[in-house]
Amino acid sequence: MLKLLRRAGLRRPVFFLALAVAIVVAGGCYSTDYRRTMAANVSLLSDMSDKLADYCRTYFKLDDRQLSSEEMGEFYYAFNKANAFSSSTPREASRPSHRDFIKLLNAYEKFAHAADEYRLDGKVNPAMLASLLSQHDQVRHLAGKVSEDLKNEPD
Fold first, then answer.
1. What is the rounded CA–CA span in Å between residue 62 and residue 117?
2. 46-77 pLDDT, tens per residue?
3. Contacts 24+ apart (CB under 8 A), 112-119
4. pLDDT digits (tens, 9 = 90+) for 77-108
5. Which one of 3, 82, 85, 98 has the minimum C-beta count within 10 Å?
6. Residue 130 φ/ψ, nearest 5 degrees
């Protein structure tokens, strides 16, 4: 067996150098993937928050009809997708971007539920609309914070 390992070059320093480089590259891909996927999830939540705020401003009217519960599902899907990503990155939990992303998720979820309740109430309520738009502003602010965190974090 030892002869086989020697012939395969496993005892040579070049092999170990190549192995070390491969590990570093793999680690770099993981870090890059975290950044790219985090940025995509932040963008998704931000865009869906903008769309939901637009629906709130029009009192959930599309043409001449009310937005349906099924159509609201896209907002919950975005939350579930982003939440699944967050749950799949426990090694990144100490990163500022991850901590702020959790805050973003919570703010988005609160906004989506409050907007859905407003939709179901079916009544125009300027005070509630103002509250919803304030929640939307908070989601946008937190999305910007996560994006800044990603720029400032080392790989």
1. 17
2. 999 999 999 999 999 988 899 999 999 999 99
3. 112/52, 112/75, 112/76, 112/79, 115/52, 115/55, 115/56, 115/75, 116/72, 116/75, 118/56, 118/60, 119/55, 119/60, 119/66, 119/67, 119/72
4. 999 999 999 999 999 999 999 999 999 999 99
5. 3
6. -60, -40
pLDDT confidence of 155, banded at 50, 70, 90?
A: confident
Mean pLDDT of the chain: 86
89, 98 Cβ separation under 8 angstroms:
yes
DSSP 97-122: HHHHHHHHHHHHHHHHHHHHHHHHH-
